[in-house]
Each structure stands twice: as C-alpha cells, then as structure tokens.
Write a structure and sequence with these properties.
This protein folds into two domains: about 110 residues, Nucleotidyltransferase, domain 5, CATH 3.30.420.40; about 160 residues, Nucleotidyltransferase, domain 5 (2-Layer Sandwich). Helix content is about 50%, strand content about 25%. The strands form two sheets. It has a six-stranded mixed β-sheet, with helices on both faces.
C-alpha cells in the first residue's frame, strides 16, 4: 500500500515543505515548496527572534500543514533546526509552531540533524567509498558527520556558523574577507574529523555554490570561486550563474565555510540535492515498514 509522508523543515534561511509517497521499500518525492524568512540574520544580530518573525514562521507552518493534509499525508512531522537550538527565545518559537501545527513539533539536536542529513545524502548519492563524510551547510550552523553508508555516522560535530550568519558578519565588516576567513577558522578550530574516502555536501547554499564552482568542490575550485564571488554583486551572481536572488548574497560566505571544511576533510566535496528532509522521510519509511 502506498502512503504519503510530509516533512516541514523550519531552518535559519527557509521554511520548506517536502512530501513523498512510499511503498514497502522505495520513496518518491512528490512535492516541495519553500518560503524564505532569514531567521539566521536575527540569530547573528541579537541572538533572539522578534515577534513578527515568529509569527511569519508560524503562518508558514500552518499553511504547509494544510497543504500536506490536502495532499493526503498519512504522517506529518515539523522539524526545527538551528533557530530552535540557538535562539534565546527558542521556546517561544517552538510554542508558536506547535499551536500552528496543532501538535508538538520536534527541535532537532545537532547530532540528530547530522544523522538525518547523512542518511538522506547517502541514500540519494549512493557513494562507493567505505567511509563517507556528509556536510550539512545551513544558514546558522554547519554539521559534519562521518561514517559508513550502511551503518551511519560514528563521528559528528556541529558548528554554530552557517552561510547566513557569516554573510551578516561580512556585511558588518564592509566585506573584509580576511576577517571572515579568521572567523571561520576560529569556529572550526580544533576540529579533526576522520579522513573519509568521499564527501558529500547538502544545503541550499551549497547547491548555489555548485552553480558557481561546479558540483565537485576541491581546493582549486573553491579558491577560484571565492575570488570570482568577491568581485561580484549579488545581482551579478544571479545573472551570471543563475543563482536565486535570495540565495545569491550567501554564496561567498558559503564558499569560505566550505573551503575550511574541505581542508579538514582532505577530499573534494560533491554537491548533493538531498539531505535532512530526505533523511527524515526515509525515517518515516522505516517506521512504516516496522
């Protein structure tokens, strides 16, 4: 019997709905849509979310819950990532989202986010390496998980720095790349992940960076992309590389973060279109099968 599952992901840059239909052993994505809120800007600027932003997030969740039900979703989960963990008033956000959804939402720990991203990326990309790293580049945080595709991650770390947070710092510094690089190096200081045979990177900003630098991000590709992006306005990035106008301002910061991560993993990163949400849908498939 085919069933429909839905996941609503409340992140630092967007609120996104994904629905999928699954049978006994397969899952087919049916529908996705998103609204951009940019909660990560407020996390970086004040550490709190204002009432209007919380209300907008709740409105998006309410609308997406209704849409998921219209699509016949048998299961529906609302996941909250960095905004729920990092905001000083994250409990207010969670309460508003719970009222909007009509049932408790789930605030993911950093490890849970890393595990779901690993599962989703590996299932879609099907890497052949025995040990794989998956990087989830978000707006306010970056998660790295390393492990075997068949058994899951055994090493996980989360850093409270993502493309949206770093973009805010770049703007405040007048575009000082040296200061931004120093901030990234400080955020990842001391991180020594196991060296994988292959690495995948998920997230909207990573996909946008892939349009600039290609889908395989090694040191040369990242250095060249950083040099190009530093000379372009967001409008020029959109026109030249067909990056969405809301995502274009974040791509330079994404390149700086990915370059730091790549140096620590020691292998190129392959951009993948699947991650956290697909991992959550796979978890729903496993639960249904059980």
């Amino acid at each position: 019997m085919l069933r429909t599952a839905a996941v609503i992901d409340v992140g630092s840059n967007t609120v996104r709905l994904v629905t999928a239909r699954f049978g006994a052993a397969h899952l087919d994505e049916l529908h996705t849509e998103r609204v951009r809120l940019g909660l990560g800007h407020e996390l970086e600027a004040t550490g709190r979310l204002d009432e209007d932003s919380i209300a907008e997030a709740a409105d998006a969740v309410r609308a997406y819950c209704e849409e998921a039900r219209r699509q016949g979703a048998h299961s529906l989960e609302v996941l909250v990532t960095a905004p729920g963990r990092q905001a000083e008033n994250g409990d207010e956000l969670v309460a508003a989202l719970t009222r909007a959804a009509g049932y408790p939402v789930r605030v993911l720990t950093a490890d849970e986010e890393a595990e779901l991203s690993f599962a989703g990326a590996v299932a879609w990309a099907k890497p052949e390496a025995a040990v794989v790293a998956v990087v989830d580049l978000g707006g306010a945080s970056t998660e790295i998980a390393v492990g075997r595709p068949e058994t899951g991650p055994v090493w996980m770390r989360s850093v409270d720095l993502g493309a949206l947070r770093l973009t805010t710092r770049l703007r405040e510094s007048g575009g000082d790349l040296d200061a931004a690089r120093a901030a990234v190096a400080e955020a990842f200081a001391g991180m020594a992940p196991p060296t994988p045979g292959a690495a995948l990177i998920a997230g909207g900003s990573a996909r946008a960076l892939g349009r600039v630098a290609g889908l395989v991000l090694g040191p040369e590709e990242l250095a060249e992309a950083t040099g190009v992006l530093a000379e372009l306005s967001p409008e020029e990035i959109t026109e030249r590389f067909e990056v969405g106008r809301h995502r274009a301002p974040l791509v330079l910061a994404a390149a700086l973060i990915v370059a730091e991560v790549q140096q620590r993993l020691l292998v190129p990163l392959e951009v993948t279109g699947a991650g956290l949400r697909e991992g959550a849908l796979l978890a729903a498939l496993d639960e249904a099968a059980a």
